[in-house]
Amino acid sequence: MEKIIEKAKELYLHYAEQIITWYDGLEQLYQYGVFFLGIVFVLLVVAYVVLSRITR
Known about the structure:
Distance between the termini: 37 Å
Number of strands: 0
């Protein structure tokens, strides 16, 4: 079980580093766009969860 956790942590750190490098390489306007799209995505997921619980 510990090997799985270590492997997951290693993959997370690897991909997080790649994403941060990619994000830092963008122009500032594109960074704002990516940030905005991330917020919109999170809000849509939250709205879906809330609405699915209300309509049960």
